[in-house]
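Why does residue order matter? Because the sequence determines the fold. Keep that principle in mind as you read this record.
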Amino acid sequence: MGINIGDLVYQLIMFILLLGMIFAVYFNVRSLLARSNKSNSIEQKLDRVIELLEKDK
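Structure:
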């Protein structure tokens, strides 16, 4: 009863694919959260510019 090389390669490939999917989900969620924070920062800056323009009137 020996180790079949084909089974070993298959298990390794499946393990790498599983890890790849986990990392893909993690990085997608992280990038979506970063975009949300960036959008909020831009909105705050625009609000400040609008506020300053209204004071000048």
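The mean pLDDT is 88.
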